[in-house]
Amino acid sequence: MSERVDRQPGGAPESGRPSADALLGATEIRALAAELDLTPTKRWGQNFVVDANTVRRIVRTADVAGMDVVEVGPGLGSLTLGLTEAGARVAAVEIDPRLAQLLPSTVARKQPHARLEVVQQDALTIEALPFPPRAVVANLPYNVSVPVLIHLLERFDSIERVLVMVQAEVGHRLAAQPGSKTYGSPSAKVAWWGQWALEGDVSRQIFWPVPNVDSVLVGFRRGPSRGSEELRRRTFAVIDGAFGQRRKMLRQALAGVLGSSAAASEVLERAGVAPTLRGEALELADFIRIAEAAGPALAPSGE
Prior knowledge:
The chain has helices at residues 26-35, 52-62, 78-85, 97-110, 145-155, 168-175, 185-190, 229-244, 250-253, 255-258, 261-271, 284-294; strands at 3-7, 48-49, 68-72, 89-94, 115-120, 135-139, 161-167, 194-202, 207-208, 215-222. An eight-stranded mixed beta sheet has the order 1-5-4-3-6-7-10-8. Strands 2-9 form a two-stranded antiparallel ribbon. It starts with a strand and ends in a 9-residue tail after the last helix. 38% of the residues lie in helices and 18% in strands. The chain is elongated, with a radius of gyration of 21 Å. It has twelve helices and ten strands. Strand 4, helix 4 and strand 5 (115-120) form a beta-alpha-beta unit.
């Protein structure tokens, strides 16, 4: 279940000029954590952004001024304040009840006219938001980045763009193209909704605590519809099969989801895909043709 924590009064900021007091600094962030007796946990991937310049850079890159935005894992509010400063209306989804309770008062103190709604829930299971979001902007927990993005894009078709800060390895996978070393199941799946691209590197030093991995910004713009929800699930089942055994040719890798190697070869030939290829050589359009050629013989992915 979700719990609506609070809503701040509507209204755009009175001045469009950035204020040094409008965002959180490193000292304030540590003070807020001390107030909650909070030690950032690996379980929820808590690494808080403590650099205001980086926050404003993310917001500029996201280009969401005045838009309806969903932020996942707002934490102590660093990025939230950057978004509201730009005039965005923010639905902040926070799993940690202590952080969810504190965020509205933090934002109200720094920006009285900010438009914010906080929803205390796990972003992996959320089914409704206070308003249809047009964008996702977030510092995503490293351990759930891809599942969260897939869930949000699947559930909220109002999302037109995404800019997220993720572990560098994850970002490179999201933006990878067929044939590259980083191309895999996540790359093919997220391409269903549109185009992904790397938008820049992020220093480890802007986080508290400092993580032991590098981070990048990765962006998304929605593309034209690829087909029905049933076709998407069938396509994802093909992708899962193809990358479940990366070193095997498709006729072998897809034997499990299509019944046998012989059946897989027949489907692949109908789809115009060579049975001897491997999954990393295929574009999303190839996986879609395989799913269409398989028809009822292919069970949709349960995800």
